[in-house]
Amino acid sequence: MPTVSFKVVPADARTSDEGLYIHFMIDTEHFVAICLDGRAPDGPVSAVTLVDQFMQDRVDAVIRFRDAALHHRSSPDTRLTPQRRQRLIESLRAIDARQAGATYQEIAETVFGAAPVNAITWKSAPLRDTVMRRTASGLDLVAGGYRRLLLGHRPDRN
User: Which helix (H) or strand (E) is 145 found in, with range?
Assistant: First the structure.
């Protein structure tokens, strides 16, 4: 099996008690690492991970790193499905619009491209419920719910 060697020139490296935090790119993939000995790597590297409730996410990240380094291709980050990513985008757009003073109907027209309807039709429109759910979800994200996104496939753990 080939060994990957690369030189990291960390322009934004940061030293801490844990070691040297570095940011680097392989092709189009961005990676963050901690060099436990406090020095940027200049040769082969290995991965070390903690055994805890976040281990699977770390292992998945190591696999994405391996694929980028050895195969010059990106493995998908499976923590967010394309559908979930789209709902998050809609939620953030909805909460931005709501905080700017938009009505739910205006959000439906702007964020979802809905055709304008009269007030009576709007009250029974299925999109009305979707807009309200996305707005509530956006409020939750802004209030700190975004942290749950880091949990990936696991249930919420506080």
Answer: none
